[in-house]
Sequence to fold (138 residues):
Amino acid sequence: MNLADFSSYARAIPNSKIKSLSGIINLTANTSIKNDKHKNVFANLTVDNLAIMQEDIARSIYCKDRIDIKTDIDTTKNGLNIRHFNILSKGIDINIDGDVTKLDAKFPVLNTHVVIKNSKLENSMSFVAAYILIPFGL
Fold:
């Protein structure tokens, strides 16, 4: 799927600062119902040439290399159990597991474990700068 086809929709979101989207994505997902009636979601997402361009270029996200995201997530009452969440690309290898609770709250509770292996800051800087460093004025 070509993300550029969704640029006009992203711009139409109230208070959206997105100017354009581009990249090719391929998503496969398998959802099953567990014994406790909650869901388990396995998903694989591949993105090539990702670009989420915003009005403020410093907040834009871009990656010319392929990004592979693999997830194994269980839904819980008002939360998620992240059994496995991996982001892998050239110079980026991030693994996340843990729980997110109180999803209906203004500030959901994150109890996660993040491991960044064999990664180069310059490869992941557009992800980090856009949503972590800039809001803190760094």
Q: What stands out?
A: The mean pLDDT is 86. The chain has two helices and seven strands.
